[in-house]
What we know:
The chain is an all-alpha fold. It has helices at residues 6-14, 40-49, 52-56, 75-93, 97-106, 115-125, 134-145, 159-179, 193-216, 222-226, 229-241, 247-276, 282-287, 296-314, 317-339, 346-355, 357-367, 370-382.
Amino acid sequence: MPPPDLTTLRESALLASYAMHSADSLGRRHPEPLHPYRGPYQRDRDRILHCAAFRRLSHKTQVFTGEMGDYHRTRLTHTLEVASIARTIARALRINEDLVEALAFAHDLGHPPFGHSGEDTLNDCLQNHGGFNHNAQALRVCELLESSYRPHPGLNLSHEVLEGQAYRARKHLKNRASRDPLTPPPPPACPLLEVQVVDAADSIAYNAHDADDSLELGLLTVEQLLEVPFWRDARDRVVQRHPSLSHRQVLRAVVHELIDCQVTDLVANASHLLSDHRIRTVGDVHQAPPLVTSSPELSDKKSVLEHFLLQNVYRHPTLLAKRRPAQHRLMELFDRFLKEPSLLPVKFQQLAETEGLPRTVADYLAGMTDRFAFDEHRRLSQA
Length: 383
Ligand code: MG
């Protein structure tokens, strides 16, 4: 037997037995030799970081569009916040930080331009062709649309990264199945803790940053947020701890406090559940209920904040007004490329031969940044 490599030694010294150890990975579709000092999940993370789809996240809407200002989060900065929060939780639970970071970097790669409005539009366009969902699209980006110097399409990521993203896509299908009895529910197996952590970090990040961005953009007032118990409690703790902060400093500190208290609660609750369910191995994790969850008390508080954000931010008239013209442009682009496939870049014309034209047009549109989609629409309307 060859001696264990550096990554295996490092992981067996640092990680818990229920963490996903890279030595137990099911590997890549196209086998590759091990790197002398970079572990497989570290390489996955780097491949995602260096791919074009990742860079384009910097010009894609998270919630607020680019022309609304420079303060708020983009899809890229959201992704980096998720990765940072997820890494903190992973380290505290002694699970695989490299895998967590690869999963976090990949989680929103499939988002089309214009945020969820863009996603809804593409889903309408593909209604008779299997629909569109950003989680499933992220898998297409990793497995098909991105390419490297290697002879096969995609990034050739490790099984666990792809399976984690596939779980997110199946979860979306499950949510849809609960509304549509004709869609069969997916099999109930709990994903790796690393996957659960990224899911939790996603909501921790957006709850805090959407409130912060909305205040900065003037879509919400401090008085409105003080009616939300979760925000008010965090504000009270901040003011008690730091009585001399300015109004603006208090706001910054409340956002940090919201993240900190959610992470602290999550780590404590997950640690209890891991011990209560006597979790020792990855196999135990798959058999157990979800383990990386907030305490019931904090979950209730979070739901109130999420409901508040839904009512007062995501459905704010300013956002709805931006939504319609963007959706209209995307729909027009879809129809135009469907009618005139020769307008597509050659790579996508070739892809259409195997993937079908509607899906390929959606692949091309989903890869666009907000700005590129606007420019392309203008260019083609003049052509
Ligand atoms: Mg996200």
